[in-house]
Amino acid sequence: MITSFLLKSFDRTIVIAVAIILGLALIVPALNLLTAPDHPLHVPTYLVSLFGKYLTYALLALALDLVWGFCGILSLGHAAFFALGGYAMGMYLMRQIGARGSYGNPLLPDFMVFLNWKELPWFWYGFDMFWFAALMVVLVPGLLAFVFGWFAFRSRVNGVYLSIITQAMTFALLLAFFRNDMGFGGNNGLTDFKDILGFNIQAQGTRAALFAASAVALALSLILTSGMVRSKYGKILVGVRDAESRTRFLGYRVEHFKLFAFTVSAMMAGVAGALYVPQVGIINPGEFEPGNSIEVVIWTAVGGRGTLIGPIIGAILVNGGKSIFTAAFPEFWLFALGGLFVLVTLFLPKGIVGTVQAWRAKRKEYRKAAEDEAARGQAVAEPVAAE
Amino acid sequence: MLTRLAYRSLQSLLVTFCLLITVFATDLRAEDDLRAMINALGEGNFSQTAKQVEALAKTGDPKIVPALEALAAGDLYQRKSDKQVFLTKSSGGTLILIDPLSGEEAGTEASGALAKIKVNNSLRRVVRSALGGLTLMSPDAGTRLQAAQTLLRTPSADALEPVETALAAETDARVKLVLERARAAALLVLDRPDDEKKAAIEIIGNAGGQDSLSLLSAALASADDTLKPDIEAAISDIQDRQALWAAGQNVWYGLSLGSVLLLAAIGLAITFGVMGIINMAHGEMVMLGAYTTFVVQEIIRNSYPWLFDWSLAIALPLAFLVTGAVGLAIERGVIRFLYGRPLETLLATWGISLILQQAVRTIFGPTNREVGNPSWMSGAFELGGLTITWNRLWIIVFSLAVFAALLFLLKKTPMGLQMRAVTQNRRMASSMGIRTPWVDALTFALGSGIAGIAGVALSQIDNVSPNLGQGYIIDSFMVVVFGGVGNLWGTLVGAFTLGILNKFLEPYAGAVLGKILVLVLIILFIQKRPRGLFALKGRAVEA
């Protein structure tokens, strides 16, 4: 069954994309670690982290594509799932600091000492163990998505309303994480990380490994989502997207299909957040900003929703553009981003990949039509020749 | 004839002159006496000083008030060289001398050359009651009122006598009321029969307020058993009334917040509620309205300062026109290509909001700009136990006025009729000869223009910065979704419900947690009623 799942998921473009991502997972760290700093092909460590960050964004966009592109749920809360995964990882990293913090408290993170707390809050227990933190990275966003989705889909909140309440959820979480009493570092968030799994988080090797991990996570998620959307389940998901009522009338429990996709997607977003935090070195409530979630939507839209590799390309392009733009003309970045939103929705509704696919499909059809024409022409011509 | 007139005028002049001299002389003599008496304050022990204070009080001259106040505060000094008494103000190592009667500065002196006139508690009490008596008899009603209030707040047994004399002479009803309370307060601390005390408790209990509460609590501590039930009843009575007023204040704050929400959401109720466009640039329309107010005020400040009180009235139509025009441009340029694709309009309008924000940031800078309150909008007044600020009151009135105007426009004008027709059945409306594209454009412009008007009002209570709109966008959507899409009444009820709910949760949960709770409640509410409080019914809903 697994082989058939894998076989089905390996369409040619997906195979190529997975190969490229896995190739990057090998090549970029190798170029960083094995070449001398003055070598023309050397990739500086800061770039490794920057590209690693893009890959986590790509994973986030891929997660959104699963629900938006294939199920029609425009979630404006994916940055929240991303941030929750990030916080779970950040809590592990905080506990790893141990007594090396500025207050030297072996148990409590610095901000708790600063707030004069005496005991570790209960929800910080267990985060000194990596496996527990890793579990929470997927469980917390997954559980939130499950509960939220269970309520929302069951009462048939959909379309715009769903977008708005996911945004409300994100906003509520933003406000909550800003509070010092919540025990997540308030405004400043979690930062000053020292090491991860015993390796120094600033070290070149760790950075390269984190990059590779992000790439592998992205490749695995791509295989997973591709398998999902190509299975029978995926077909029904598309049915839900295009004609929800009809699918329901055909006897499918629409809300279960939606809920499954939503939860898986939130878990993927959580993993993306968890890989993002050690590469960036900080997680704060700003990640919950409703604007961030909307930005994820534009990455997906630029690349092409419903294409799986589109969102990956979109996330990397838009964020690469952002890095270049904000360095060169910082004032104009928002103009560019805003313009991108408008232009893509107006002129490129299928996104880059979607447009290319449509164009190729059209050409194929055209060529086929031409071949048919030629064949028919031949068929007509042949008898003449026979005579 | 002429000589007679000259003689007469000379005569009268002489008489006036003589009179003036007499008056002046008596005044001077009186002042000399007072000065001597004040100088005498520096002599002798506490009881002698107390006698002097009483003697001073008997003169009934308000001029001695500063000296007595300084004595009680320990700021009265005697110059060792000539035994003159001065008020002082310390400045570094030296003391600035102030004449006790005229209040003018009279040089400086090293602190070693002066001796402080010592006071103890009993002397202080004497001074205070003397002062109370003096100011209680002041010809100015305001001063009397203030004195009576001071005595009410710090009751003492000595105050009873002056209060009773003042009460007998008082004519002003307001002062009389406070004096009666002050008398009751004094009775409470005195050793009087229970009946008198009970009456006093009742008077103070009726007065209400925090001061009465602390008076009664102090009395409760020392009261005997016969009085205790009365005091306790009076205290709980006051507390009940205070709780009621506090609830009233919360309702007021809630109404105020609700009016802000209503203003922010009402434009969205048109663009989102009526047209179904997820207008994420709505907040930026509010922001543009606020910046229009800023520009108008800048021009007025620089060129026509006397118009300042009219600045908002001038800004209102301008803001409507500016944001309406921007809205029209957005609809014609972007949104009309996206009808039927609501999620895409969300993205496009979000992009527009980013562009508008950055444009304003580039033109006006990223910092807050100052928008002033016209005089009729600043200040506050008391209504019973409520403090009501004028700007909040005006904003409530204004939001309701905008609501009413919009309702009138939609229900009673041909334009409103066409708008509703297009929303309900576009193709039918089109067949009837309505130019639906124009109606769309005008409706969107109307919604945007109303957002701009809201911006004028919100500039009075919020920081005018490029981020102004972002703070309102989520709340606005919550209000519209909560109230029910496509229903203006729903928006009204939704705004005020959320406002009041928020303010009632705040005291228990804190401002941030209260807001989170409201958001969670809305999310849960939408599960129960996905179409809001006042849902549209019928086939059009599913389309």
Automatic annotation (TrEMBL), chain A:
Domain of life of the native organism: Bacteria
Transmembrane segments: 12-34, 54-85, 129-153, 160-178, 208-229, 257-277, 297-320, 332-353
Location relative to the cell: Cell membrane
One Pfam short name: BPD_transp_2
Predominant location: membrane
UniProt entry keywords in alphabetical sequence: Cell membrane, Membrane, Transmembrane, Transmembrane helix
InterPro entries, sorted: ABC_transp_permease, ABC_transptr_urea_perm_UrtC, LivM-like
Topology relative to the membrane: Multi-pass membrane protein
NCBIfam families (alphabetical): urea_trans_UrtC
PANTHER family: HIGH-AFFINITY BRANCHED-CHAIN AMINO ACID TRANSPORT SYSTEM PERMEASE, SLR1201 PROTEIN
UniProt name for this protein: Urea ABC transporter permease subunit UrtC
Gene coding for it: urtC
TrEMBL record, chain B:
Main location: membrane
Keyword set includes Transmembrane helix: yes
CDD domains: TM_PBP1_LivH_like
Bilayer-spanning residue ranges: 251-278, 310-330, 342-360, 393-410, 437-457, 477-501, 508-526
Topology term for the membrane: Multi-pass membrane protein
UniProt keywords, alphabetically: Amino-acid transport, Cell membrane, Membrane, Transmembrane, Transmembrane helix, Transport
Pfam families in the record: BPD_transp_2
Compartments (UniProt record): Cell membrane
Alphabetical list of InterPro entries matching this protein: ABC_transp_permease (IPR001851), ABC_UrtB_bac (IPR017779), BCAA_transport_permease (IPR052157)
Keyword Membrane: yes
PANTHER family: ABC TRANSPORTER PERMEASE PROTEIN (PTHR11795:SF447), BRANCHED-CHAIN AMINO ACID TRANSPORT SYSTEM PERMEASE PROTEIN LIVH (PTHR11795)
Homology family: Belongs to the binding-protein-dependent transport system permease family. LivHM subfamily.
Name of the molecule in the record: Urea ABC transporter permease subunit UrtB
Protein's organism: Mycoplana rhizolycopersici
Lineage: Bacteria, Pseudomonadati, Pseudomonadota, Alphaproteobacteria, Hyphomicrobiales
